[in-house]
Amino acid sequence: xxxxxxxxxxxxxxxxxxxxxxxxxxxxxxxxxxxxxxxxxxxxxxxxxxxxxxxxxxxxxxxxxxxxxxxxxxxxxxxxxxxxxxxxxxxxxxxxxxxxxxxxxxxxxxxxxxxxxxxxxxxxxxxxxxxxxxxxxxxxxxxxxxxxxxxxxxxxxxxxxxxxxxxxxxxxxxxxxxxxxxxxxxxxxxxxxxxxxxxxxxxxxxxxxxxxxxxxxxxxxxxxxxxxxxxxxxxxxxxxxxxxxxxxxxxxxxxxxxxxxxxxxxxxxxxxxxxxxxxxxxxxxxxxxxxxxxxxx
Length: 297
What we know:
This protein is 28% helix and 12% strand. It is α/β, with parallel strands linked by helices. It starts with 23 loop residues before the first helix and ends in a 12-residue tail after the last helix.
């Protein structure tokens, strides 16, 4: 049970296995998204941009979400070359703790996550390292203290971050000279939304969008842009609503989405997913997953 009194959905409940003759070990193996020996190493580069708290609901004078209202040509340009989806951070209807939502994006399942928030668990070994799990050298660019703490628990370095968002992409490009995976976590949108100011959140989205104007200078093989959880200004706190995801890669199956917002991405080619589905998709698009074969004996 979570803080809302709702039962969290285990990954295993999402798979239906009609063949009752399969033994428990086989069923357990099939509930895992991928096996450790499927992971490949290559020279591909993965960039993930997390717009923390970006999801909203229709409100404001035009009854639009903050993403719909914002002028965001750079995000929309990415959407037109991507395959899109909506992500439930944990499961439909579950209001996530922001730290849990961030970890879920990196593929850590409910059984991997700390029961208490990170602030209450400092000094304890919480999680399997990111490098051990994915064979990736990672970097997290953020100013958020809790995200920095979680990244360090996963043994992901966090470089010193410039104050101007426009310099973050230059830092990411520099980081990619020595790492395979770079995550940029923007928390300004969440800060604005927590104050309940619709236009302040819109402005934060537009500011970040402007900082992405030079994104094409980063030679990423896979680019993903997503939220971690929704934080509508009408609520001024995290909510259960799914967040928009877009993935751009050479072998991505592009869809018809033309705008990065909640309603448009709900029509995307990837449908509705859970946040912990993102890492397998990124690895697959980067050529870092080999085929999986099941034993039916």
